[in-house]
């Protein structure tokens, strides 16, 4: 769920995983793992990812929460 929202936000601004990785100081492989929900980021990592996506961590979490509630 969280990974899907990260991917949607990244695609919305039209950047690659590589670009997001560079801008957030993370490895592209890690971004891929997050987007496929294979890894769970720390709070610090979420802040690092959200900054280049120009979204707040709280808005990202709110989207995940809404998606989760919708699927219940």
Task: Explain this structure.
With 72 residues, the protein is an all-alpha fold. The chain has one domain: lambda repressor-like DNA-binding domains (434 Repressor (Amino-terminal Domain)), CATH 1.10.260.40. The chain is 72% helix and 0% strand. It has 5 helices and no strands. It has helices spanning 2-12, 17-24, 28-35, 43-53, 57-70. It starts with a helix and ends with a helix. The relative contact order is 0.20. The model has no long low-confidence stretch (mean pLDDT 96).
Summarize the model shown:
The chain is 72% helix and 0% strand.
The major pleated sheet works out as:
none
Determine the N-to-C terminus distance: 13 Å
Order of helices and strands: HHHHH
Shape: globular
> What structural class should be given to the helix and strand makeup?
mainly alpha
Overall pLDDT score:
96
User: What's the total number of strands?
Assistant: 0
Output the CATH class name: Mainly Alpha
Q: What ranges have pLDDT less than 50 throughout 5 or more consecutive residues?
A: none
